[in-house]
User: What shape does this take?
Amino acid sequence: MLLTAQRVRRFSGEEGINAFCSLHGPYHWFGAPPPGSGIPDQNPGERVNSIVTVPPGGNRVRSYLDIIAPDETPTAEIVAAIPQFVTAVAQLPVPWEATVGRCTFRFGLELGMQGNAAAELQDLLAAALQVRAPF
Amino acid sequence: MSLVNQAVLQEAALQLLASSTVSRYAREASRLAKESGLVRTVASDSLKASEAVVRLVGSLKAVDAAVDRTVEEFEAALLLCALSRSEAPEAVAMVRGLTAKGATTSPWIAALAARLVALGPVAEGELSPIHAALSKVLDGKVVHVEAAPDTEDVSEQGAFPRRQRAA
Assistant: This one.
């Protein structure tokens, strides 16, 4: 499963967060996705749900949060892994990437948003977990 | 006109009776709810969502009154899957209500409801403690951005939702 939330800006200045949920089927793994699976970049899965606030296509991505986990991962498990992810990467330069249990997180944001990482991560997280769909 | 037609119910009966695990049961029920258009119908129309809730309550009464597994169980499974994708408050309450102990005598329906809730979106208020935890670690902190996302998003049909921007 790939849950993605990204803050995008159009040329016109319109800005918002779009979020997508894609599923991969009954694959199980622990830790990061198996290297041969291509998940998520080469194999982003089947898109089953989206929340679109700005029409997608050609917009600048200002920040993003990817959550990669097996489809069967309970939402509560993902939620519980987030503080551990942030604690593990907080001292590192962005973009952040880390795996907690079977959940892999990737977070990036553009220059100019450095002082606002907490709020940005919260907004993206809310969108990513709101777009989740069980099938 | 019924929300779930006879042909879909027949297929559901076959597939759900043949399921020996909750995982397969849920997969088949969701597939049929989706492929029959029930998910789309219920998710896009709040009146249909209300109708589905009423119908589900009726089906569950029949399920709970029956000694053996009945066709109403299969109808309930499909309606439950469809309602789990609806944002209508009564649909959300219905699906979550079925995860309570004793809400139904059908172990299949109870397990399906639990699964749909566990693998669904976060409930309102569920993120508050996480937000507090994030604030504790990150508030006031200026993170060092080593590489900004030099990417643009792709259209909804695009596979991965963003790509590197052209130089």
